[in-house]
Structures are given as structure tokens and as C-alpha cells.
Specification:
The structure holds two protein chains of two kinds. Chain A is mainly α. Helices cover about 75% and strands about 0% of the residues of chain A. Chain A contains seven helices and no strands. The longest helix of chain A has about 40 residues. In chain B, the strands form two sheets. In chain B, strands 2-3-4-7-6-5 form a six-stranded antiparallel β-sheet, with helices on both faces. In chain B, helix 1 runs parallel beside helix 3 and helix 2 crosses helix 3. The chains are: A mainly alpha, B alpha+beta.
Amino acid sequence: MGNIFKRSQVLSDMKAKQLKYEALVRAYSTDLYRYAYWLCHDGSIAEDLVQETFLRAWRSLESLKDQNAAKSWLITILRRENARRFERKQFDLVDIDDHKVEDSGSVGSEQEMENHLLRRQIGQLQEEYREPLLLQVIGGFSGDEISSILGLNRNTVMTRLFRARNQLKEALESTNQFKGAENG
Amino acid sequence: MDELNFRRRIYADPNDSASDINKACQEDKQLAKFRADMQDFDKQIAAAMEVTPPENLSERILLGQTIDFQRKQKQKHRVHLAIAASVAFTVGIVFQMNGVSPRYDNLSDHALAHMISEVDHIPGTATYTLEQLNSKLVHFGGEMANDIAPIKFANFCDFDGTTSLHLVFQGENGDVTVFVVPSDSGLKASDRFSDMQYHGQTVETQKASMVIITDKKQSVNNWTEKLNKAIKWQKA
């Protein structure tokens, strides 16, 4: 009897773990993919990174005690995987234009243009500026959370966020000005 | 809050809604507009970052995990098997070294052990014919001329690595076991032997040793005599 109980306990623990895991995958795989994509600029590498991240997450799911911390936990795993990738091999950066990016459908052509320019600029941001921005915009993390994920102090993070947006805005404005000058 | 500081904070986080930021916005419409513009800009950034993930990404991840899990289970299973095998192997080696494992260098001891271990496999009725017995005995250079008793068992067996013949006759007072073991088995034959329950005798022929075992209620001598008379052994 005891054995049967123990076995069914083990089975239901397994089932609970599987359910928890599936919920994580469904909730965060898209955000993780986007984050990975902007780290490596390559769709298939991004998918590999996400796959590997979730495999590692499965293997150490027991260490995730706080459900609310799941996203930053996954991001941390993904960042580690990405760093490992660079240890193995330095990949050539791929031009961002070679890869499909979400088409928002209803956006007008001018906005589409801007979108395109923005993507370009995001791709060209230095990584130290880009990563906090990704964490804030895709991840929805606060300054404190970003500083703990990146292991930086909060002031540094806020400065980098300021510079990231500043650079994007300037780049966009200068293109618009250039466009304006051309038109005028 | 001075304007520069305000702008820096909004650039760093357009959705900053700390009380001093809110207050500044209420007091200065320009600042409020600046924040609203930056929030729009942030929506643009978010839209630009929206890369479409591959189709069925979640399912692919879950599939990858299932495959990985199954592979791990298999590996675990294999490791367990390997551990079990190596433990069994070690136990075997230790027993061999300590001589715990039953190993006999003596024909009669081996015959006794073999007989006892096989007792349960001997059929209750005697169904073997003299021809069947002779077809096997001929390999050891012998031929039984006439029936001496019903034959319950007549088969080759492994006698400490040597192919031998295992015979069981149904005597009037119980079974009689006879082993015919090739002379080159390397096992030393002792003429007479016994344990608590059984006694036996070994007869050397040209090509083989014949070990005869009965329980102590019967005379092993009588059986040896009967067998010697009935079996003709080839001359070398």
C-alpha cells in the first residue's frame, strides 16, 4: 500500500512539475525568443538559445521557488547560455535586415518606415545600452530588477537606459531631418 | 525638480510615475507633453522589438524537453543496469577469490553436488528407452546391452565445463544416478565417497569415469556390478 501511495505521489509530483513547466513555456517563450533575437540577431540561434534555456529550466525547476521571479530567472539562464555561446564561438553578426521582423499589419507606410529605422538603430546600439532597454521594454522589469539581472548598480542602469533612448531618438530625428531636407 | 533631471528620468523610464514626476507634470504642461511623447516613442520601440517567434515555438520547446527527459530516463536506466552488473561482477569475483563459490576439483564431490541440484528436474516417470540411452552413451565409448532398470533420465549435461552424460535409473528402493564423465575432464576420481545421505563409487573405463550414486539405503556395490555387466566399453 505504502509503495503504491509513494508511487502515485511521485507520479503526481511529476505531473505537477510538467504542468508548471508547460505554463512557463507558454507564458514566456515569445518574450524569451525576442530577447534572444536582439542579443544574437539571428532567428535560428535565438530559437536554439530559447530551447536550451528551457531545457536547463526543466532540469532545475525545483530551484525556482517564487513563481513571480520566473521571468527574471529564465532571462538569467538565457543570458548565461548566450555567454556560453560566445565562449564556444564568436559568431559573425548578421545584418538585421536579412531577417523577418514582425509586421504590425495596420501601420501606415510612414510608421512602417520609422519602425524599420528603429529596428536598425536598436540593432546598432551598443550591447551595454541595448540589453537594459530590452529588459525594460520586452521584459517589463523595473530599474531595480534590471540592475540585479545585469549585476550593475541602479544608477548605471538608469544612465544606460537614458543613453539608449537618447541615441535612438537622435538617430531617428537626424534621419527625419535629412529626409525633410531632401523633401524641402 | 529641474527640467534636465526630469528629462533624464523620463528618458530612462518613460513610464516613471513617481510622485515628484507626476507633480512636475501637473505643474508644467510642457513636461507633461514631453512625457506623453516619450511614452509614444516607447510604444514605437516596443513595436520595433516585436520579432515574430517561429511557429509553434512553445510546442517545439515542450517536445524538446520530452525527448530530453526520455533520453535521460534511458540513460538513468542504463546506469542502474551498469551499476547492478558491476556489483554482481564484484560479488562474483570476491566469492571466487574466497572460495565461497562451490568449485570442486574432485569428481565425486562435483557429482554429488550436481546430482542434488538436479534432483528436482528428474521426471517422476521412466520414459527413456535403452536406444535413447545408448545413442548418448556411445559418445563416451560405451554401450548398454540390456535394460537393468527403468530409465528416468538420460541426457548430456555440463559437468564443470565438461560435457558429460547424466543418467537416472529407477531402482526398487529409490533412484540411482550415474554420471559418465570423459577421462580428460581433469577432475580427480575417488573410488568411494559419501555424504550424510548418499554414497557412491567411481569406475574408471578406457575413455571415461563412471560415477554411481545411490542413497544409503541401497547398496552402491550392487549397482556398480549391474552396470559393469550391462555396459560394454570400447577398448582404447
